[in-house]
Design goal:
Strand content: 15-25%
CATH class of the largest domain: Alpha Beta
Helix content: 25-40%
Structural class: alpha/beta
Number of domains: 2
CATH architecture of the largest domain: 2-Layer Sandwich
Radius of gyration: 18 Å
Strand order of the largest sheet: 7-5-4-8-9
CATH topology of the largest domain: Nucleotidyltransferase, domain 5
Shape: globular
Order of helices and strands: EEEHEEEHEHHEEHHHH
Number of strands: 9
Largest sheet: 5 strands, mixed
Distance between the termini: 45 Å
């Protein structure tokens, strides 16, 4: 369920210790400084062995409340799917940026994550005037604030986290799994599970595997598809 309310209304969740967190405290601070369009930015897939790192940028209406929006890692897949649809419907602007495995290997995962965030930012249909970023800095002249654990402390960043996570998971379960069905991408989403490591050892790495991440995995064949 979602409702519109304004600046004096607090959107709260409970953290792991059971304490209430105001998920709009950062947004409210900058709205009160006359910033109008605040974009939350986050990425997913940073620790994967396979596939793109995916980032999202989301601009929410001032004071919008969305029950249950939190760090995407703390939500079930079903809950993320429901919230994805709500965010896509209610956000003022949403954009997703991608950086592939070859680029990740060439520039390293930290720079690739920043690049994906920049691409997401540049794809927004509405120009933001302030950025809230999950523990990173985006290459942009727009004023910004990096927030450690931002996806658990800012509604805008949490919304971006959900958009990025659902987008990447759907690629894993659809196009990427269809392309490499023998690797179980739909199951492990590209992360370094026992199943995934075993498939890489047995079958070799694909062109979508991050070679710089495979140094500790014995790849018996270097198969490129």
């Amino acid at each position: 369920m979602y409702t519109y309310r304004w600046r004096n209304t607090v959107n709260k969740i409970s953290n792991e210790e059971g304490n209430s967190i105001d998920m709009l405290k950062y947004e409210t601070c900058y709205w009160e400084q006359s910033y109008q369009h605040i974009a939350g930015i986050d990425e997913v897939g940073r620790g994967c062995l396979f596939g793109d790192v995916v980032a999202a940028a989301v601009i929410l209406p001032q004071g919008l409340q969305m029950d249950g929006v939190n760090d995407s890692k703390k939500l079930s897949a079903k809950k993320r799917d429901v919230l994805y649809d709500i965010i896509m419907e209610k956000a003022l602007a949403v954009s997703v940026g991608y950086v592939d495995a070859i680029t990740i290997d060439n520039i390293n995962i930290k720079q690739a994550s920043r690049l994906a965030m920049k691409r997401a930012l540049e794809g927004l249909s509405l120009q933001p005037d302030f950025l809230l970023v999950d523990a990173e800095k985006v290459d942009s002249e727009i004023p910004q604030l990096a927030i450690v654990k931002g996806d658990a402390n800012s509604l805008s960043i949490a919304a971006a986290s959900i958009i990025a996570k659902v987008t990447r998971d759907r690629l894993c379960e659809g196009a990427w799994d269809d392309k490499y069905p023998e690797y179980g991408i739909a199951i492990h989403k590209g992360y370094a599970t026992k199943l995934h490591r075993g498939q890489i050892t047995e079958l070799g790495a694909t062109s979508m595997h991050r070679r710089s991440f495979l140094r500790n995995i014995e790849v018996e064949q270097q198969m490129l598809f």
